[in-house]
Design goal:
single chain; 455 residues; Urease, subunit C, domain 1; 2 domains; 8-stranded mixed β-sheet
Length: 455
C-alpha cells in the first residue's frame, strides 16, 4: 500500500481539502479519506489530462514548418502536408519508437496520463506491409510503456489520395486498400496492445477524403461496436468543397445521414460546420476532439464551440502535431479564440457550475476518457487507478490562492514550473519536472534526430 496526503483533490463538483488517497500495489485507489492538515505532505491533485489526438512521428518536425518564401502564397495546410509526407517516408521502426518515447515522456511531464495515438504510418519504406502488420503500432505501444503513459492505439484506415482519387506515392506507407485489409491491421494492432497493461485499441478512419465514404459507413455499422471510432473531418475548406463536388454534401452532413453517430464517435477538428451540422453532432451524443494549438498553427479555423456547447455538445483536447504539449495552453487557446470572436468571457461556463476552470477540466476529462474507451465520470474513485497531476502548493501563486479560486488559477495562470508530479496508475512518473527515465529516453531521441538530419 502507498499513501498520498494532498492539500486538495479536485472532484467533479469542486475541491476536497486535506485528503489522503491510499493505493494498492497495482496503483488502484483503495481508500479516500479526510485527514488533519498537519498530515498533508503534497499539493493539489487534478485528474490526469487526456490527450485525445496524437500523431507521434510529427513531433520530429515540430517547429520546422515555419520558414516561408517571401513571395510564396502557399503557406497553408496543404504545403505543410508535403513536409509531413517527407518525414513519414523516412522513419524506421526504431526511430519511430525513439521519437514517440520522447514525445510521450514530455506529455507526461506536462500532465497527460493517457494518449489516443491516431496512427497511420503502417508499412515499410517501400510501401509493403511488415511481416507483423502492426510493427509500427507495436513500437508506439512500447514507447508508451517506456514513458509510463496509458495509450489507446488507433490504427488508421487510409485508402485514398482524396475524394475519388487514388493514393499518391508519398502516401504509400499509410495505405490499406480494402476494408478487409484494414480489419486485419486492426486485429494485429489489438494483439500488440495485449503486451502492455496500459494499452487498448480503437477504430480510426483518416478522413472522408482518405477513405471511400461507403466503406466508412460499412465499418461503422459492421465493425466492432464496443470500440471508440475516431475520424478527421471538415478540417479544411478545400476538403468541404471537394466533398460537395464528390458526394453532393458536406462531410459532416453526409456522415450524420449515413452513420448512426453516438457517444463512441470522436470527430477530430470538425472546424467548419453549418448550424445544422453543429446541432447534428451535439444531438447525436458524438464528441468533438479539438486541437487548438495545431489548428491555429495550420490556419485551420475556429470551431463554433459556444453554439455547440449550448446544444449540449461534448469535447476533448489533443496535441495533434505537437507544436505544444501543454494541456493548459490547449484549453486557454480554445477559450480565448471564442472570446475574440464572441466578445464574451464566459466560454467555459454552465448554469450548474459557473467556474470556468472546473467546467473545462470536467469536459476535457470526461469526453477525453471516452476517446480512450473509459467511461468513468468521477475524477478520483475507489476501485480505479490513480492518475493525477500534482500542482505545487509551495508555488507562490498557488499557495496564496483560496480553494474557491484554485481551478481557474491553475487553468489560466500556471505553467509547467508549478507542477510537482505526475502519477500514472499509482506510479510517480515525473517528480519535480523530471521524468524518471529522462536521460535514457533523451539520448535515444538525440541519436534518432541526428540520423534523420531533419532538424
Amino acid at each position: 500500500m502507498k499513501h498520498y496526503a494532498f492539500k486538495g483533490i479536485l472532484q467533479n463538483n469542486g475541491w476536497l481539502e486535506n485528503i489522503a488517497i491510499t493505493i494498492d500495489r497495482d496503483g488502484i485507489i483503495v481508500d479516500i479519506e479526510q485527514v488533519n492538515e498537519n498530515e498533508v505532505d503534497t499539493g493539489y491533485a487534478l485528474p490526469g489530462f487526456q490527450n485525445a489526438h496524437s500523431h507521434a512521428f510529427q513531433y520530429a518536425m515540430a517547429g520546422l514548418a515555419e520558414k516561408h518564401d517571401a513571395d510564396s502564397k502557399n503557406g497553408d495546410f496543404w504545403s505543410w502536408r508535403e513536409a509531413m509526407y517527407r518525414l513519414a517516408l523516412h522513419i524506421s521502426p526504431d526511430q519511430l519508437e525513439d521519437i514517440a518515447t520522447m514525445l510521450y515522456a514530455e506529455m507526461v511531464r506536462h500532465g497527460y496520463t493517457s494518449v489516443a495515438e491516431f496512427h497511420y504510418v503502417h508499412h515499410d519504406k517501400s510501401g509493403k506491409p511488415y511481416d507483423n502488420l502492426a510493427e509500427m503500432g507495436s513500437r508506439l505501444v512500447a514507447a508508451a510503456e517506456t514513458a509510463g503513459i496509458n495509450i489507446t492505439l488507433v490504427p488508421i484506415f487510409y485508402q485514398k489520395g482524396g475524394f475519388g482519387v487514388a493514393p499518391n506515392e508519398r502516401q504509400k506507407r499509410f495505405i490499406s486498400s480494402s476494408v478487409d485489409d484494414y480489419m486485419k491491421l486492426l486485429d494485429a494492432s489489438q494483439s500488440v496492445c495485449k503486451h502492455y497493461k496500459g494499452a487498448n485499441i480503437a477504430i480510426g478512419i483518416h478522413s472522408m477524403r482518405g477513405v471511400e465514404p461507403k466503406h466508412i459507413s460499412e465499418i461503422a455499422q459492421f465493425g466492432p461496436q464496443n470500440l471508440p471510432f475516431h475520424i478527421h473531418i471538415s478540417e479544411q475548406l478545400k476538403e468541404i468543397e471537394d466533398s460537395i463536388e464528390y458526394l453532393g454534401k458536406r462531410p459532416v452532413e453526409w456522415l450524420a445521414e449515413n452513420v448512426a453517430l453516438s457517444e463512441r464517435f470522436h470527430l477530430v477538428h470538425a472546424t467548419h460546420l453549418t448550424e445544422n451540422e453543429t446541432a447534428s453532432i451535439a444531438q447525436s451524443g458524438a464528441n468533438v476532439v479539438l486541437c487548438p494549438t495545431t489548428e491555429g498553427n495550420l490556419g485551420d479555423g475556429i470551431f463554433p464551440l459556444r453554439k455547440y456547447q449550448e446544444l449540449g455538445g461534448q469535447w476533448s483536447i489533443g496535441t495533434d502535431s505537437h507544436v505544444s504539449l501543454n494541456p493548459l495552453e490547449e484549453l486557454r487557446l480554445l477559450d480565448y479564440g471564442q472570446r475574440l470572436v464572441s466578445h464574451k468571457r464566459d466560454t467555459f461556463n454552465s448554469s450548474e457550475q459557473g467556474d470556468s476552470g472546473l467546467f473545462a477540466f470536467e469536459m476535457a476529462s470526461t469526453a477525453g476518457r471516452k476517446a480512450m474507451n473509459n467511461f468513468e465520470e468521477k475524477f478520483f474513485e475507489v476501485g480505479k487507478p490513480l492518475n493525477a497531476i500534482i500542482y505545487d502548493d509551495k508555488s507562490p501563486l498557488i499557495g496564496s490562492t483560496s480553494i474557491d479560486n484554485m481551478a481557474a488559477t491553475i487553468l489560466y495562470s500556471t505553467d509547467a514550473s508549478m507542477q510537482q508530479a505526475t502519477i500514472i496508475n499509482g506510479k510517480e512518473v515525473v517528480t519535480a519536472g523530471q521524468h524518471f527515465n529522462n536521460e535514457s529516453i533523451s539520448n535515444k531521441f538525440f541519436k534518432t534526430i541526428k540520423e534523420l538530419e531533419n532538424r
